[in-house]
TrEMBL record:
The active site is at residue 109. This is DNA polymerase IV. One of its GO terms (biological process) is SOS response. The gene is dinB. Binds 2 magnesium ions per subunit. The lineage of its organism: Bacteria, Pseudomonadati, Bacteroidota, Flavobacteriia, Flavobacteriales.
Amino acid sequence: MDFDFPLRKIIHVDMDAFYASVEQLDNPELKGKPLAVGGGAKRGVVSAASYEARKFGVRSAMSGFLAKKRCPELIFVRPRFDRYKEISTQIRKIFYEYTDLVEPLSLDEAYLDVTKNKKGNPSASLIAEEIRAKILKDVGLTASAGISINKFIAKVASDYNKPNGQKTVPPEEVLDFLEALDIRKFYGVGKVTAERMYQLGIFTGKDLKTKDVDFLTEHFGKSGKFYFNVVRGIHLSEVKPNRIAKSVGAERTFSDNLTSEIFMLEKLENIANELEKRLKKYAISGKTVTLKIKYSDFTTQTRSKTIAYFIADKSLILETAKELLYQEKLKDSVRLLGISLSNLNTDKKDKKPSKTEDKKSISVQLKFEF
C-alpha cells in the first residue's frame, strides 16, 4: 500500500486499569477483587476501576453510588497520586531505553516513535513486546499496546487486545482496518458524535469514507476534515517529546451540594489559590478563564471568558471566575466547581514536515517493516 505522506513506526502504550492495578500491586489482598479508586459510595466519583469491577459495568467518571449499586461487593480505595506518579516515572524510564521520542498523554499512556530507535530493531511490534515484558518484570504491571503508521491508528489499536495484549496494523492493512472499524471505535468520536453519525447513516469507517469533506464539515465543523483524513489513514501529527499543556486547571468535589452562588465564593477562592500554585510552578500564564460547574444530576456546564492579556495571579483569575459564576442563574445544586486557564503563553503552531522530508519518507516505504 502506497501513501503520499510520511510513514512512521508509532507505538501507543496504555497501562491496564492503571490506578486500580497499582493498588492491587501494593496490596495483594485486593487482587482478583472488584476495586474502584475514588471517593467512596456516598459522594465520590470513580477515578478508575479494576477489570473485576468492569464486569459489573463499573466505569471511570461514574458516581460511587451507582457503582456500588451495580457491584455491591465493590471495594473503594482512596487515590494515591504520588504513588501513581512514582510508578509512571519508572515506566517512562523504560520507554527512554528505546527512544527519546516519547509523548506522555497521562500517567498511564504514551506515544513512542520507534522509526529510528536506540536498539536498532527494525520491528516496532517486537519493540512493543519487549517494552511490555520489561514493564511486567521491573514494575509488576501489565500494559497493552497498539502499533501502526501514525498516532491515531496506534491509539485505536491499543484498545483491541486489552488487557495485556497488543495489535499491529501494518501499512498494507491500514485502509481495510479503518473501513471495518465501528465508528464508535474511532478515537475522538464520543457518544454524542456517534449518535449524530448514526442518524446520517454512518456506522463504520467504510460508511464514513463515502462522505466528502464538504458534507462532513457541514455536519461536524472543523472535526469534519479530521474524520475525512483519518479514515484514509492520514494523520500527520508527530510524536512530541515535550508535549505542551493546552490548559491548566484545578477543581473540587464537595461533600454536600452547594445551592447558592454566595456559598461558592470561598470554594472558588481555594480553587484559584491551587491553580495559581500550579501556574507559578511551571511559569505559565493564559488569557482564557473557564469555570466548570457540575450539578447534582451530574450534568456539566462550562463558562469561559478570554481577556486581552496573559494572567496567572489568583486575584485576577478569581475575579473572572466570579463574573462567570454570576453570568447566569444556576439550574440546580452544585457538587463540583473547577477553574482552568487556557490560551496559554506556551501555545505554538505544530511544525509541518517539509516537502523534502515527505519525499524522503516516500522513498523508503518499500523497506518499511512492522
